[in-house]
Amino acid sequence: MPRAGRIREKLRWSNLYTFSCLRPNVLEDGPHSLQGPGFSRIVYCNQPRVHQKKPLNYPSNYISTTKYNIITFLPKAIFEQFRRVANMYFLMAAILSLTPVAPFSAVSMIAPLAFVVGLSMAKEALEDWRRFMQDMKVNSRKVSIHKGDGIFGYKPWQKIRVGDVVRVEKDQFFTADLLLLSSSYDDGICYVETMNLDGETNLKIKRSLEVTLPLVDDLAFKNFTAKIRCEDPNPNLYTFVGNLEYDHQVYAIDPSQILLRDSKLRNTSYVYGVVIFTGPDSKVMQNSTKSPSKRSTIERKMDYIIYFLFTLLVLISLISSIGFAVKTKFEMPDWWYLQPQNTTNLYDPTKPALSGIFHLVTALILYGYLIPISLYVSIEVVKVLQATFINQDLHMYDEETGNPAQARTSNLNEELGQVDTILSDKTGTLTCNQMDFFKCSIAGVSYGMGSSEVEIAAAKKMAFDISEHNSEMSSVPMHNIKARGLMENSRSNFGVSEIELETVITSKDEKDQKPMIKGFSFEDSRLMGGNWSKEPNADAILLFFRILALCHTAIPEPNEETGSFNYEAESPDEGAFLVAAREFGFEFYRRTQTSVFIRERYSSSGHPIEREFKVLNLLDFSSKRKRMSVIVQDEDGQILLLCKGADSIIFDRLSKDGRIYEESTSRHLNEYGETGLRTLALAYRKLKESEYSVWNSEFIKAKTTIGADRDAMLEQVSDMMEKDLILVGATAVEDKLQKGVPQCIDKLAQAGLKIWVLTGDKMETAINIGFACSLLRQCMKQICITTMNTDLLAQDAKKALLVFLITDQAVKENILMQLINGLQMIKLEKDPHAAFALVIDGKTLSYALEEDLKHQFLSLAVNCASVICCRVSPKQKALVTRLVKEGTGKTTLAIGDGANDVGMIQEADIGIGISGVEGMQAVMASDFSIAQFRFLERLLVVHGHWCYKRIAQMICYFFYKNIAFGLTLFYFEAYTGFSGQSVYDDWYMLLFNVILTSLPVISLGVFEQDVSSEVCLQFPALYQQGPRNVFFDWYRIFGWMANGLYSSLIVFFLNLNIFYDQAFRAGGQTADMAAVGATMFTCIIWAVNCQIALTMSHFTWIQHLFVWGSICTWYLFLLLYGLSSPIISGNSFQILVEALAPAPIYWSVTLLVAVACNLPYLAHLSFQRSFNPMDHHVIQEIKYYKKDTEDQHMWTRERSKARQKTKIGFTARVDAKIRQLKGKLQKKYSSLSVQTIIPPS
């Protein structure tokens, strides 16, 4: 159906905007020169089929973030599996098992390997299938496309082709990179939100070419044809060069006409565009990288352990083969019963070296139990179950969106417990992109009664510290009544209970259940309900509110439900100001091309009055100007310049008479900034008509200028007007952080994690957010690294290149000097409480990341308490992440919610995607996804800590039990003349790893808890056991191996010495090899299962079932195996019933060996817990004796100790506030003491 008309067609924004809506005069400037490589793309508009054929053959709009496809799955997945050293070894062993030298049957070697590899590949396939399904969600989105004859219909995104004309509706994402042809506004303007690309919250203004404006509805595209010649696909988000050939004319295209995929249409009903780049060619996909194969630190270290065990395996195999060769040469000729004259090469006394080589292969297979084949499959099973628990954790389920946490890959579970540095996006990750009007300063008076969390927490914790230092205060002389009274008073006011940061942070949300107005959190009766008119400075307040209601570019839209208006503003700040103005009684309700209409609810007449203000000029906001002004004429004919902007900019432009409130306003701004609020200063200027007319003629002249000097002239003319201002006041808005962000950051900081913020937002916004979430605080020393001013470029074109090179080198030297000075400043700082923050922008970062500067940059960054990188591109985010990862050698975690975060998410050791309301690009590229940043606390501090410790203990135990078992084979072979004979039945060996010891170790990896989840959160310092690698360092690994060696010696030699000449049966017969083998195996089963029971801290019925059930399973198997036919059971026929069970020595040896094997570990554990306990040992003991409930004071003291010393986060901020308050209090005590001691004259 053709579109009948346009909404708001009378608004021609291009006539209002000064800086944002420049449309180049293409006839004057001419088209771009597109010669040479990199500019070969040709797009035939409205002819998509042309691009599917050669020579163009452009890709479709289908995207994929999967690791595999149908063709590559088998080769890539098999490569991934056999990249593991152990699997490669078992593959060779399986091949060799087909030869005569194998001591076991081929099936016993091939079947376990096929099972292990097959299960791992199935897990990989399942995880990649989930990624594929999420890709399909994006690819299946619908968009309206021109099908021909002026008819539009909906098609999935994946079927969009280059050259298609599409119609995108308001609040929809752009399906591909488009050239804007026209919009619902008369002059082709549209608003675009690029938050998903660059993190910017402010809307961008795009404007179509003049020539395509007549394409006003669906029917206009019936016969539309044009050709676009432009640059080839590239990752640069901010540049575009191309020409449009239309109606026999050529027009230049620049970035202001390009709509990028994954950005969103806002404040505009619809736009028409033609597709230029699709799918993998789009700029956002050009910025992404292929899904990398990530391996955890523990898994990589496990390879080195496998290398060590393989070396041990080769060593004992060489010893065995040499021993066998010696025996074959010197002793076998005398063993007539072996018929050495008829033997093969395997046992040829005349060729002992060859026999030794064959035996080496036999030994390598025989001792293969040193390397646990079931380790990998057990880890896979454990990790999948761990991931299931993460997915089903209700504490990480977001009720608002219905999104649970999701482990998209289970390979990195334990890596969550070893994170050292978190690199976070800002917009949509830390913030929810909502501004609330919180406080204001008008005419030197501060309004707004709300208290920040920092102030509340500091007051309460101060009271607690007072009670802690009660003994100190008791030493104050009793005659100092005033000081003691003050102390008692503060104690009674604040109470003495410990400050619980979680409670403080959430208390604000919970104390008031009254419905809140979105964008307005202001509380002060002096300004509400028209009470402002009774204030002493009512005229200034009136002007303040009018500035809020008039100085903006927003559009009001009626809200039928509430009867008021919603405001579509370029930035959330503007929206908050308009909501505040409405609540104060100044409702902006209508805009025309030339006027703004305000409904003033509280007038002197007592009735609402509708006022019209003519908009004469609009000097819009830009990141360079840091201010916005509007020139209006009121109903009395008075011309006013109304200005809002950064306080540093506004204060510099005040007149001498306009600085009356500067000192008090500046003090208020500092107070607001200290509590993390975003501030702007408001000012005005009255203009005479003659003065304005002269300026306006200059302004029009500058605005209509064509050429490179236009922007400079406009800036110069604007500066002429934006001076001699009179300060009215300042605003303070709260950039709404996502729920629980300050608490989460505080807990992560207490856990010893470093947090970097990488954002595409401007520096001021990033710094404000740093204050809001306590990454920055007022007394923290900021090191801002910026580029020097390079605006003074040569006018002579011939010198341009030389000047560029000189300037570039000078900039690098200047940045290097700043980096060195910053590092020197930190080294010379003597105050132990001093904290430094590094702030750097994207332009400077591009130099800092170069090879010759990056190490100095990293050295400075790691010595700072917090790091904020602003104005960074997606590629720079990935490069910074790589620098931290490779430069520090520690585990990095990247978290973000937009397509601009994909690069760093994939580059980091662990990538976390926020599954919020924006696109799913970040989630699809991530390893884990959560709905809110606050869930990161539980994901790391609880699940990360558990998973790391479980996997580490599980792997150490696996090597212990396999060494304890495998070395007994070597001892027996040495004892039997290196014959290659195994003391155990083949079935025993097959079942050892697969059934008899597998379930207990899986239960250890899935259910083990050193402490509960609540304790993990209460004692965040426990997390540092992961980054310090306490449970998987070489000391602990070799300790477990030594334990395995000890157990193997005890099992073999105790059994051998006891059974060697000891009567076994009632008739006095000694035990045969089958009985000795079964007894030794029983001892091993008991020893290793008792060992894992001692290792576990947390028992459920499942652990009891698996541990003791495994032992029972061994006896059940032995019974059933013995009852089977002798053809199957061989020498083990009726072994339990007839041989072992009736023999008391069998049971006594089992008990003796099991106790002897576990005695050293029990002694070590007892000694450690008694004399050198670890953190979790202390907590376990407190919990066991219920001291956490019976002795709250001790529990509180232990909790306060269990925090890493940190200079960021809510706790650090509160501590800084307390130091400040204590200093003031100490001064007060001192003065009171002096007054008391000096006698009255």
TrEMBL record:
| Keyword Nucleotide-binding among UniProt keywords | yes
Task: List the EC numbers from the record.
Answer: 7.6.2.1
Q: Which reaction does it catalyse?
A: ATP + H2O + phospholipidSide 1 = ADP + phosphate + phospholipidSide 2
Which Pfam families would you find in this protein's record? Answer: Cation_ATPase, PhoLip_ATPase_C, PhoLip_ATPase_N
One GO BP on record is:
phospholipid translocation
Any idea where the P-type ATPase N-terminal domain is? 43-110
The residues the record assigns to binding ATP are: D425, K426, T427, E574, F621, K644, R678, T759, G760, D761, R871, K877, N900, D901
UniProt signal peptide: none
Q: How does it sit in the membrane?
A: Multi-pass membrane protein
Query: SUPFAM superfamilies, alphabetically?
Result: Calcium ATPase, transduction domain A, Calcium ATPase, transmembrane domain M, HAD-like, Metal cation-transporting ATPase, ATP-binding domain N
InterPro entries documented for this protein: ATPase_P-typ_cyto_dom_N (IPR023299), ATPase_P-typ_P_site (IPR018303), ATPase_P-typ_TM_dom_sf (IPR023298), ATPase_P-typ_transduc_dom_A_sf (IPR008250), HAD-like_sf (IPR036412), HAD_sf (IPR023214), P-type_ATPase_IV (IPR006539), P-type_ATPase_N (IPR032631)
Q: Which residues cross the membrane?
A: 109-126, 304-326, 356-377, 958-975, 987-1007, 1034-1054, 1074-1094, 1106-1124, 1144-1163
The protein in question is named Phospholipid-transporting ATPase
Give the originating organism. Answer: Tetracentron sinense (Spur-leaf)
